[in-house]
Automatic annotation (TrEMBL), chain A:
The lineage of its organism: Bacteria, Pseudomonadati, Verrucomicrobiota, Verrucomicrobiia, Verrucomicrobiales. One of its GO terms (cellular component) is cytosol. The glycine cleavage system catalyzes the degradation of glycine. The H protein shuttles the methylamine group of glycine from the P protein to the T protein. The gene is gcvH. Residues 22-104 form the Lipoyl-binding domain. This is Glycine cleavage system H protein. It comes from Luteolibacter ambystomatis.
UniProtKB/TrEMBL annotation, chain B:
It catalyses: N(6)-[(R)-S(8)-aminomethyldihydrolipoyl]-L-lysyl-[protein] + (6S)-5,6,7,8-tetrahydrofolate = N(6)-[(R)-dihydrolipoyl]-L-lysyl-[protein] + (6R)-5,10-methylene-5,6,7,8-tetrahydrofolate + NH4(+). GO terms for molecular function: aminomethyltransferase activity; transaminase activity. It comes from the Bacteria. Coiled coil: none annotated. It comes from Luteolibacter ambystomatis. Signal peptide: none annotated. Substrate binds at E194. Its EC number is 2.1.2.10. The glycine cleavage system catalyzes the degradation of glycine. Pfam families: GCV_T, GCV_T_C. SUPFAM superfamilies: Aminomethyltransferase beta-barrel domain, Folate-binding domain. This is Aminomethyltransferase.
Length: 125, 361
């Protein structure tokens, strides 16, 4: 199971990469494997303000729809059009080309409340 | 809770082969092994094997079986030669579907029926209620393990697993020298066969089919495969308040064979035209996967009905579904909208089936 050491994780399986005050969000390798083939991604509107825990995007596999929650509060500043065109990127490259949206976070310290890679590994094992 | 789940005789073999078991229609069954799209593609291009042990098997025998079954079922049993099968319906008094099933004639007065898993008790009770003394009716569902091998390479798989044996012709039934029953039908649109072995031998047969090249498949892709073919799912697309005429399955109803339960309603609907019809809907562009119970609207926003089934079609790469719509909205090409969590995706009524498999052997 791939859990990169430089990311933080939400208990609901989103990952966060914080660079400055921009947080890139996607779903974990474990989550994509559980969901199996992703066939549709519904992206949020750019400019939308979200609080931590808000359903912000939807990832659908053949089996079911899953809400993707904002791991921390902020404003949606960018979405990944590539995953809309090719949803399988979420399966094949969940931490890279399969990212879903970027937030300009209100409080960068909020990221500290998320799971560390070790904490996330403990949760999923 | 898990104690209430029925267990397939193939369960140990599924676990050994890596199947992911989940509760399904009261049974602990594999929904997938690797991924639904993988397994779907294996059946369309090579061969896959499904556990269908949850389905029920009834035997009917005795003088007058044919005449009795013809009163109980919508299709014409008299058209079956020995060794032949047909798709048919068990209807209630209002022409509504209790179950869809396949009946095979195995002797002059002997019949083998394969019914849906969730309907075994109800079907049996309905038959038993109408059973004359001269007819023997047996529920053998517990005795048989069932596997469906489906896909263009399924004949080759059979040849490896059962050397020297011959597959029955399309829609036929035969018995192997080892005492298993082989039926040449299927629920995927591909060439294939269903194999019923004594329950205790099931796991070994499953492993033999896999070793011979059939990919083990879960029930997840069985749903996408059958929906691409517009094969109805009982409980979704077929229901006690829907008739085969409304479902567009009049081809499997014989109104000329004499009286049968439900005939009156069907004859009236056929003469007058049904008020609603089950249509095939396909997205005109990409969209969120449609699923059962999603609402269907007209482009002007009028509520027309809801999907009885829906799925992302792996073969077409877009959303497909079935819905009962008012007859005025069922013409091929009619534009509608499918509502997914408040967002509407354009779709249109298309010709059935959604997918045409390669020519069968």
């Amino acid at each position: 199971m791939n859990v990169p050491s430089d990311l933080r994780f939400n208990t609901s399986h989103e990952w966060v990469r914080l660079e400055g005050d921009i947080a890139t969000v996607g779903i974990s390798d474990h989550a994509q494997e559980e969901l199996t083939d992703v066939v549709f991604v519904e992206l949020p509107a750019v400019g939308r303000a979200v609080d931590a825990g808000d359903p912000t995007a939807v990832v659908e596999s053949v089996k079911a729809a899953s809400d993707i929650y904002a791991p921390i509060g902020g404003e949606v500043v960018e979405v990944n059009p590539e995953v809309e065109a090719n949803p399988a990127l979420v399966n094949t490259d969940p931490y890279g080309a399969g990212w879903i949206f970027k937030l300009r976070v209100k409080n960068t310290a909020d990221v500290e409340s998320l799971l560390t890679p070790e904490g996330y590994i403990a949760q999923i094992s | 809770m898990s104690d209430l789940l029925k267990r397939s005789p193939l369960e140990a073999a599924h676990i050994e082969l890596g199947g992911k078991l989940v509760p399904f229609a009261g049974w602990n069954m594999p929904v997938q092994y690797t991924a639904i799209l993988d397994e779907h593609s294996a059946v369309r291009t090579k061969a896959g094997v499904f556990d269908i042990s949850h389905m029920g098997q009834f035997l009917v025998s005795g003088e007058g079986s044919l005449e009795w079954l013809n009163k109980m079922l919508a299709n014409n049993v008299a058209k079956l030669g020995i060794g032949e099968g047909q798709y048919t319906f068990l209807l209630n008094g209002h022409g509504g579907v209790i179950d869809d099933l396949i009946i095979y004639r195995t002797g002059e007065n002997d019949f083998f029926l394969v019914v849906n898993a969730s309907m075994i008790e109800e079907d049996f009770a309905w038959f038993a209620k109408h059973q004359p003394e001269s007819i023997e009716l047996r529920n053998e569902s517990e005795l048989w393990a069932g596997m469906a091998v489906q896909g263009p390479e399924s004949s080759a798989v059979f040849a490896v697993v059962c050397p020297g044996e011959t597959l029955p012709p399309r829609n036929g039934i035969s018995k192997t020298s080892t005492g298993s029953i082989v039926c040449r039908t299927g629920y995927t649109g591909e060439d294939g066969f269903e194999f019923f072995s004594p329950a205790e031998e099931g796991g070994e047969w499953l492993k033999k089919f896999v070793a011979a090249g059939a990919k083990p498949c879960g029930l997840g892709c069985r749903d996408s495969l059958r929906l691409e073919m517009c094969y109805p799912l009982n409980g979704n697309d077929l229901a006690p308040d829907r008739t085969p005429i409304e479902a567009g399955l009049g081809f499997f109803v014989d109104l000329d064979k004499g009286d049968f339960i439900g005939r009156e309603t069907l004859a009236k609907q056929k003469a007058e035209g049904p008020a609603v019809k089950l249509v095939a809907l396909q997205y005109t562009d990409k969209g969120a996967p449609p699923r059962a119970h999603y609402a269907v609207f007209s482009p002007e926003g009028e509520a027309l009905g809801e999907l009885s089934s829906g799925v992302h079609s792996p073969s077409l790469g877009t959303g497909i579904g079935l819905a009962y719509l008012p007859s005025a909205w069922t013409k091929i090409g009619t534009e509608v909208r499918i509502d997914v969590r408040g967002r509407q995706f354009p779709a249109k009524v298309v010709k059935k089936p959604f997918y045409k498999p390669a020519a069968k052997a």
